[in-house]
Amino acid sequence: MQELLLLLVCAGILVSGILAVCLGRLMMAMVSAGLASLFAAVSFLLLAAPDVAMAEAAIGSGLTTFIFLYTIRKTGDGEGDA
Question: CA-CA to 69 of 20 to 30 Å: which in 16, 42, 75, 76?
Answer without folding.
Answer: 42
